[in-house]
């Protein structure tokens, strides 16, 4: 990423996401610290945060990505795309994730 012009904001947001995912800060506080997901770097970082923080629970990953006051449609979509790389019946259960 460093080879791309104007990468600094996105890289900083991703670094925050990795740090928050490994830390004790609440998900809501971590998302607020990253931003609202209104710009691409923030949305990507929020998605990465949710994917890393709840890597053992598919439903919690998605719910965390879409239940915040920012651009949750964007962060949910990006989280879903990230998770689609590692989705199996073992993670989602038979029939996938049910809508509520």
Describe it for me?
This protein has 100 residues and is mainly alpha-helical. The chain has one domain (8-92). Helices cover 62% and strands 0% of the residues. The protein has six helices and no strands. The protein starts with 7 loop residues before the first helix and ends in an 8-residue tail after the last helix. The mean pLDDT is 86.
Give a quick set of tags describing it.
100 residues, mainly alpha, 62% helix
Concise synopsis of the structure shown:
Helices cover 62% and strands 0% of the residues. It is mainly α and 100 residues long.
| Tally of DSSP β-strands | 0
- The helix-and-strand class reads mainly alpha
Succession of helices and strands: HHHHHH
In round numbers, the mean pLDDT is 86
The largest β sheet comes out as: none
Tally of helical runs: 6
Oligomeric status of the shown chains?
single chain
Indicate the topology.
Elements: H1 8-22, H2 27-34, H3 40-53, H4 58-66, H5 72-83, H6 89-92
Helix pairs in contact: 1-2, 1-3, 2-3, 3-4, 3-5, 4-5
């Amino acid at each position: 990423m460093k080879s791309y012009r104007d990468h600094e904001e996105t890289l900083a947001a991703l670094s925050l996401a990795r740090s928050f995912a490994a830390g004790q800060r609440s998900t809501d506080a971590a998302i607020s610290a990253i931003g609202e997901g209104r710009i691409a770097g923030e949305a990507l970082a929020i998605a990465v945060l949710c994917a890393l923080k709840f890597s053992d629970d598919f439903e919690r990953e998605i719910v965390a990505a879409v239940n915040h006051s920012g651009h949750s449609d964007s962060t949910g979509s990006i989280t879903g795309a990230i998770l689609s790389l590692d989705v199996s019946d073992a993670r989602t259960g038979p029939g996938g994730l049910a809508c509520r």
